[in-house]
Amino acid sequence: MFPTGLSSPNPPPPPTQEARPLNADVKNDGVSITSPRKRKINGSERDDAAEPISSSPPKTLNSSSSSSSSSYSPTPLHVHKKLRFEDSADLIGPDVKMSEEAAAAAASCSNNRSKAAGHHANGLTKPCGIFSSSKPGAAKKLVIKNFKEKPKLPENYTQETWQKLKEAVEAIQNSTSIKYNLEELYQAVENLCSHKISAKLYKQLRAVCEDHIKAQIDQFREYPSHVLFLKKINKCWQDHCRQMIMVRSIFLFLDRTYVLQNSMLPSIWRERSGEAIDRSLLRSLLSMLSDLQIYQDSFEQRFLEETNRLYAAEGQRLMQEREVPEYLHHVNKRLEEEADRVITYLDQSTQKPLIATVEKQLLGEHLTATLQKGLTHLLDENRIQDLSLLYQLFSRVRGGVQVLLQHWIEYIKAFGSTIVINPEKDKTMVQELLDFKDKVDHVINVCFMKNEKFVNAMKEAFETFINKRPNKPQNTWIQNSSMVIFTLTLLWAFYKKDLAKRLLVGKSASVDAEKSMLSKLKHECGAAFTSKLEGMFKDMELSKDIMVQFKQYMQCQNIPGNIELTVNILTMGYWPTYVPMEVHLPPEMVRLQEIFKTFYLGKHSGRKLQWQSTLGHCVLKAEFKEGKKELQVSLFQTLVLLMFNEGEEFTLEEIKLATGIEDSELRRTLQSLACGKARVLHKVPKSKDVEDGDKFSCNDDFKHKLFRIKINQIQMKETVEEQASTTERVFQDRQYQIDAAIVRIMKMRKTLSHNLLMSEVYNQLKFPVKPADLKKRIESLIDRDYMERDKENPNQYNYVA
Predict the structure, then answer these.
(1) Are 253 and 190 in contact (CB under 8 A)?
(2) Are 666 and 655 in contact (CB under 8 A)?
(3) How many whole angstroms separate alpha carbon 51 and alpha carbon 59?
(4) Alpha carbon distances (Å) from 303 to 281, 299, 329, 356
(5) What does the DSSP assignment read for 42-54?
(6) What pLDDT does residue 357 have?
(7) Rounded CA separation 345/285 (Å)
(8) How high is the pLDDT of residue 493?
(9) Mean pLDDT across the stretch 381-395?
(10) Nearest CA among 787, 799, 758 for reference residue 775
């Protein structure tokens, strides 16, 4: 393959050769160059330079006699091994040691060489076996060792050899006979290439071919006739193709080892830099290598090595110079380019190692650095397309998705913790958490292909940072049905409490929205999580049906009265636990309660009713100087206001005694009536708080633009006792999980110290547990014979099967 642009058919194989001698005599015009050898026979040494031992006869480089003593053929230089035969004696250095029988056989073979040796047509002589007369059964061992020193070319060998090669090329171009043997010329090219003179040889051969082509072109100017000109062109081209086939057969070793490797690789490198190259030429040349079955050895191996070095350096450089989105697009572009090269001109066997090399050097070596540098930025700015590309590229690399998953968890924990821990975000925390949940869900669905590992990791990460504030009920508020809710360990306890208030007081914005939220909770957490919440809705629906029947019962019984009673029947197991408070109700209310009790127990015998006065509310009709108004108040507010039908002024102590309301609840009630926006009572002295000795009277001058006025109860902040109570209820539910974790660990480990057990339990539980609570659970399991303390070491536990 030379710069003449020849696309010739497959070249013929190089001229056949006899077996190459390992240590041959070189003759030129009767001059013999013989390597002296030493023989060791029965322990005595003697020089034997006259009779060389050779596995083949000498070869003559120049077929015609030459008087120059410097023109000779060296020992074949590409051979780096020596064959040595061992019998009972050892080999020392380059010497050949033989037994007396082997030496005698060699001498006999040498003396009768002319009789015993057969001759080939090319003049090469078949060697005589030196062991042909050896005793049968004698063990022979073949040892191959390297030369101590690498062979060197004789002086002026390069120049003289090129001169012969040049003469042969010119003879081919001029259609004259070649003075030299083709086998010897091929061997000469191989010798030069083996000593790294390929580049110089290629330049010299190229120059000879170019000079010949230029000389051929000049002669075309002498043909004015177009027909003669075309005939001459055709003949010249045919001659050129024939000549180049002959030239290539001589320089085939140079073509395979140097020309292909040093011309195609730079072309591909230039294409990778953005230059346009002749792809069809590369495809044809690489196809030729595949047909010769030398594609992998002559091209692919070095191509992959150079590609590996190229992309390793490029990856290191671009990771420092470019931002992550730009770098990801560059990697994707490189992968597409290499895939296109495989389709266009590379062999299909190169596809897998080539793509793997690009993925390893541009992605695999920079997984952590890429995520540390740009994942947070991509997620903060919601770069959906870049995140999708990131996931696609990381999915191609072994372990890439797992590394991305770890950084994904860390990002959610870090971002969520900034929302939960910051006290300044208490008012907007719930909304921000819900927005954040929507955002990560969208990333999982669109960018991460709904990968279940990322979904589960997101849930665990949310639980981790949410439980950093386990005593804050704000963490568990949820919005309307348009918002996606998330699973939290404390969500159920606090949400159940708030939902009960909304249902009983009628503050829910939409029952349909509440039910939609329940369906999402059920989908996220399971049916067991929402069974009691669903029971609350069923109680409210059944209560409506019961009240319809109660009104019909009242009409049938002709029970007089101007008070309309509405009762909600609550199943105790579904609703939060409420502390009953005994208050002094008016006789009319007491009578209606008894009538309803008789009605309900008549339908459901065996049940027990317990009235919850803290949850009651009423609508009162009041007359002021301005006119009639309707007041929508709680049951406690109702009891206080009804007292002023019996008197003008009452003290705090008198109201407390008459109503039976607990002191703190009474103070909040009076504060809402006398100190709020709708002040239907006067308080003396005037202040924002209710103190002992304060007096209250009816505000006849009360004015308001609305006919029905809702007087809200003053909401006290959740007390420490209430928080502790809620947390204790949560712990009661969690204790079974703690017990199961302890038993599971002890069953597996059999024996464990107290500190190691505590550490194992903390690792398995996903919610915070106080050490004191954990010790209680351990003691409980010991009492129930699940485990026991070691008799010799009280800080060690043993599992009881």
Answers:
(1) yes
(2) yes
(3) 17
(4) 17, 6, 24, 14
(5) TTEEEE--SS---
(6) 94
(7) 9
(8) 61
(9) 93
(10) 758
The contacts of residue 7 (CB under 8 Å, 6+ apart) are 284
Q: Give which of 195, 189, 162, 164 is closest to 251, Cα–Cα.
A: 189
**3-class DSSP state of 632:** strand
| Structure tokens that stand for 389 in this block | 């590309």
Distance between CA atoms of residues 467 and 766, nearest Å: 9
Q: Is the pLDDT of residue 403 over 90?
A: yes
Q: Closest Cα partner for 548 from 562, 567, 570?
A: 567
Q: Which residues, including other chains, have CB under 8 Å from residue 314's CB and lie 6 or more apart?
A: 361, 362
Exposure pattern of 698-722 as b/e (b: 16+ CB <10 Å)?
Answer: bbeebeeeeeebebebeeeeeeeee
Q: What share of the chain is helix, strand, coil (3-state, %, to 5)?
A: 55, 10, 35
Whose tokens are 């304060």? That residue is 694
CB 80 within 8 A of CB 69: no
What is the full DSSP assignment across 425-450? GTTTHHHHHHHHHHHHHHHHHHTSTT
> Which of 724, 722, 731 has the alpha carbon at shortest distance from 774?
731
Give the other-Cβ count within 10 Å of 132's Cβ.
Answer: 10
């030069």: which residue's tokens?
192
Rounded average pLDDT over 698-717? 77
Closest CA to 376 of 325, 336, 340: 325
- Provide the whole-model pTM: 0.39
Over residues 362-375, the pLDDT tens digits come to: 999 999 999 999 99
pLDDT of residue 307: 92
Tokens standing for residue 569: 């029947």
Tokens 């195609």, located at residue: 264
Element (H, E) at 189: helix 182-194
Cα dihedral sign, 740-743-747-750 = positive
Q: Output the CA–CA distances (angstroms, integers) from residue 24 to 20, 54, 94, 121, in the order listed.
A: 9, 6, 14, 20
As a residue count, the chain comes to 801
CA angle, residues 245, 249, 255, in degrees to nearest 5: 100
Q: Which two tokens stand for residue 525?
A: 């957490």
DSSP-derived letter for residue 612 is: -
Distance CA 229, CA 374 (A): 68
Assess whether pLDDT exceeds 50 at residue 441: yes
* N-term to C-term CA, the chain: 82
DSSP 7-73: ---PPPPPPP-PPPPSS--EEETTEEE----EEEETTEEEE--SS---SS----S-SS----TT--P
Whole-number pLDDT of residue 352: 93
Phi-psi region of 506 (alpha: psi -120 to 50; beta: other; left: phi over 0): left
Give the span between the Cα atoms of 724 and 727, in whole angstroms: 5
Q: With CA atoms as reference, report the closest residue to 616 among 593, 630, 633, 598.
A: 633
CA separation for the pair 269, 380 (Å, rounded) = 38
Instruction: Give the three-state DSSP class for 158.
Output: helix
Phi, psi of 751, rounded to the nearest 5 degrees: -130, 135
| CB burial of residue 448 (10 Å; 0-12, 13-18, 19+) | buried
pLDDT tens-place string over residues 542-597: 888 888 888 888 888 777 777 788 888 888 878 877 777 888 888 888 888 888 88
Distance between CA atoms of residues 585 and 320, nearest Å? 79
| The pair of three-digit structure tokens given for residue 360, joined into one six-digit string | 């390893």
What are the distances in angstroms from CA 431 to CA 299, 420, 440, 654, 744?
Answer: 62, 11, 14, 46, 39
Q: In whole numbers, what is the pLDDT of the chain averaged over residues? A: 74
* Distance of alpha carbon 247 from alpha carbon 1, whole angstroms: 10
Three-state SS for 410?
Answer: helix
**With pLDDT > 90 as the criterion, what percentage of the chain qualifies?**
15
